[in-house]
Write a structure and sequence with these properties.
The protein has helices at 46-51, 100-107, 126-132, 188-191, 224-234, 255-270, and strands at 3-6, 12-15, 43-44, 55-62, 65-71, 79-85, 88-92, 114-116, 138-141, 155-158, 161-165, 168-172, 181-185, 194-196, 202-203, 210-211, 213-215, 220-221, 241-243, 250-251. The chain has 273 residues and is of the alpha+beta class.
Amino acid sequence: MPNFICGTCGIQYGESAEPIAVCRICADERQYVGDGAGGAQRWTTLERLRKDGYRNEIRQVEPGLIGIRTEPQFGIGQRALLVCTPGGNVLFDCLSLIDQPTVDALTAVGGVQAITVSHPHFYSSIVEWSRAFGGAPVYLPEADREWVTRPDPAIRYWSGEIEPIPGITLIQCGGHFEGSAALHWPGGAGGKGALLAGDTISVVQDHRFVTFMRSYPNQIPLPEPAVRGILEAVEPYEFDRLYGVRWDSVVQRDAKAAVRRSAERYIRWIKGR
């Protein structure tokens, strides 16, 4: 039986003869079904994506960091990031498409020893990616267990913070989802440290700033305590660069200060002063 993939968010479900009526990830207020209000639910499969000509673009983002994004855009359109270290490689965020050219390209740089995800919207085809790399463990937060649509023995639940690869720290920040996470890579940005943040901390058009939201497509803000919680979670870590969800979503320098001043600005405005 096939594993159906939601055409809107790109999440893969467990085996079934027929897809469910509505993707439960998209039915949540943080996302949307189909093309918005009243949109039709669309489904596909990994095999159909391959047949329809989708492919993964792979780029060297900086030394030790590789980006992967599906072209043409599918689902939410995020790109995954592979952090390469002497102790192993960890994939942060995931894609719906996994194919042999992608496996070959990543195997050439050491493969994938661990998979982590910033939040449930990017769970995508995590089980397929794990199996493509020898059953690499998939680290998902206990707080977001309810959003796992394809349970698998490779999934390992965690809370607080862990090191999926020695020296690389996965930090539970909360906010967008209760288990929303960021990955701290001390070797990034030429040794000044980088934070891979997905939608947990989102880079805005003015790359001197970031923002924090419960829902990005539906523009639902977070309350002050949630924003302060994110700020406190990342405060112990040094990082000069921050990576968001797309190729150009990068705060290139002074990123920790950018997070601080963005939080201060955000809180000032939601408090009305």
